[in-house]
Amino acid sequence: MTRQRALTSIHIAAVLFGLTGVFGELIQASAAVITLGRAVFAVIALGIFARLRRQPLMGVLTPAQLFVLVIAGALLAAHWVTFFISVKVGGIAIATLGFASFPAFITLFEGLLFRERIRAVEWMLLGLVTAGLVLVTPSFDFADQGTIGLAWGLLSGLTFALLALSNRRSASGMDPMQVACWQNVVVALVMVPFAVGQLPALPAVDWFWLALLGVFCTGLSHYLFVSSLTQLNARSAGLVIALEPVYAIAFAWMLFSQQPTPRMIAGAVLIVAAIVLSGLRKSPTADADAEAVAKSQP
Questions:
Q1: How does it sit in the membrane (predicted)?
Q2: Count of CB atoms within 10 A of residue 57's CB?
Q3: Is 288 helix (H, G, I), strand (E, B) or coil?
Q4: Per-residue pLDDT at 77
Q5: pTM
Q6: What burial letters (b/e) apply to 5-24, b meaning 16+ CB within 10 Å?
């Protein structure tokens, strides 16, 4: 893995992450079924990629690590379910931009829960995300589907922020690939009661889309992400992943004619700028946050 190959890998991973909303739009099943199918196929894919790297995934875990993985897996399940509901209700662009608010939530939680001082640049980050979300919001009326979709997207961003902070605080020292595999196992177990009854009626084409979502947008993308970190630091990789909303909006426009309005594009620019600013900020916790997001990324 050279630096050039690492940069290529991280850009491919960003494109694959951006395709997640596309599969959420294509698959006609409920968010619970999509989440279950994605997790199952992701575990299979991660197992294959780990074997190619000759990397064990079933290593001995302490009770404390298992507890952390169960909590994180439940948060990942909540993140995926709320994201796919957002896609179904509000569309790909709104869902992705709502989720992209997670750096602002991380900053807020660091200040409120962990009593870390919020710097001026981080207040600027919060301001950019807030302004971007105001522009993205179709209307301030919860009778509007787009507004409801954005609310679900924000909830998706909030749960992802909690997931990233959970990994940062408690999963240090664990391999990101192992963390991803175990968290997906937990996601599948959590979602079985809610989705298993719907599986017999799932058409073959939806199984095909679920397989692509789990293998490429979860397993392969995470494999490329983790592999790139052998040559790139987490902060640099995170800046490339910040392009995910851009790719998602472009895919939605090209494939489903979900053309963004000028206000939405302006809001997207502000939110992406905030993500980049979050990746560039020089603080004692910045690299820890970036590593945590890397472990949470699937």
A1: Multi-pass membrane protein
A2: 18
A3: helix
A4: 96
A5: 0.86
A6: ebbebbbbbbbbbbbbbbbb
Tokens of 154: 């924000």
Return d(Cα 59, Cα 270) in angstroms, integer.
Answer: 42
The 10 Å Cβ neighbour count of residue 126 is 18
| Choice between 277 and 215, residue whose per-residue pLDDT is larger | 215
Over residues 58-81, the pLDDT tens digits come to 666 778 778 888 998 999 999 999
Sorted by where each begins, the domain ranges of the chain are 3-281
The token duo for 169 is 């605080």
Residue type, 172: S
| Contact call for residues 161 and 102 (beta carbons, < 8 A) | yes
Residues 238 and 297: beta-carbon distance below 8 Å: no
Choice among 4-13, 135-144, 169-178, 265-274 with the minimum mean pLDDT? 169-178
> What is the full DSSP assignment across 208-273?
HHHHHHHIIIIIIHHHHHHHHTTTS-HHHHHHHHTTHHHHHHHHHHHHH--PPPHHHHHHHHHHHH
Is residue 156 within 8 Å of 87, Cβ to Cβ? no
